[in-house]
Write a structure and sequence with these properties.
Length: about 190
C-alpha cells in the first residue's frame, strides 16, 4: 500500500502558512503512532523513520521523493495509515528543504539544564557527566568537539547492582541534539 502523499508543499494545518512544529531527529526516533485494525507494518515504518532521522541529522543523504513514494505492507494491528502519512508529508517537506528545528542547546547552561533520568542499569553516570562537562565547555566556545565525535561516543553500562546509571534513551536523545547542534555550527 502506498501512502498517497503528493508534492513537496508543506502539509495543511490550522491557520495556514508554514508548519509551526517541525520534528528534529530525536523527535523522529521517538515518534509513535496509534494502531488500527489494519495498518502499516510498524517495523517497516520505524525503520524508515530512523532513516529520515539520520538524513535530517546530516548523517546520510535521502532523496525527498523517496519519502513521498515509500510503500509499507499492511498488517493486522498496524500503524494508522493517515497518521503515518501526515507525519511523512511533513518530513518530506523538511527533507526537501533541509529544515531542522533548533535544538535549544545554545550554551553549556542549556546542556546542563537537561536532566537525565537515573536508573539502576544504563550508561555509567561518571562517564556521561564527564562527557557533558566537555560538551558544555565546547558549546561555550572552550573546546573543539565535533559532531562526528559526539556520534561516535560510547559509554560503559552499569550492571544495576550499584544503581549508578542514566537512562540510555534519554542520553541518546541528548547526544542526538548535541550532534545536531554541532553540525549546525559547522563542526
Amino acid at each position: 500500500m502506498t501512502s498517497g502523499r503528493t508534492g513537496g508543499a508543506p502539509p495543511p494545518h490550522e491557520g495556514g502558512g508554514a508548519p509551526s512544529a517541525y520534528l528534529g531527529p530525536a523527535d523522529i526516533r521517538a515518534k509513535t503512532f496509534r494502531r488500527k485494525r489494519q495498518g502499516y507494518d510498524p517495523d517497516q515504518v520505524n525503520e524508515f523513520m530512523l532513516i529520515i532521522a539520520d538524513a535530517l541529522a546530516g548523517r546520510i543523504r535521502l532523496n525527498p521523493d523517496h519519502v513521498r513514494t515509500v510503500r509499507f505492507a499492511t498488517v493486522p494491528n498496524g500503524y494508522d495509515p493517515l497518521s503515518v502519512d501526515g507525519v511523512l508529508h511533513l518530513l518530506e517537506h523538511q527533507v526537501r528543504n533541509g529544515i531542522v528545528p533548533p535544538t535549544g542547546l545554545n550554551t553549556g547552561e542549556d546542556l546542563y539544564a537537561r536532566k537525565l533520568p537515573k536508573t539502576g542499569t544504563g550508561y555509567d553516570r561518571a562517564e556521561v557527566d564527564a562527557f557533558i562537562a566537555r560538551a558544555a565547555a565546547n558549546l561555550d566556545g572552550r573546546g573543539a568537539m565535533t559532531s562526528t565525535e559526539v556520534r561516535n561516543t560510547r559509554f560503559s553500562t552499569t550492571s544495576g547492582l550499584l544503581g549508578k546509571g542514566y537512562q540510555v534513551q534519554a542520553v541518546d536523545a541528548l547526544l542526538d541534539d548535541l550532534e545536531q547542534e554541532l553540525r549546525f555550527r559547522g563542526r
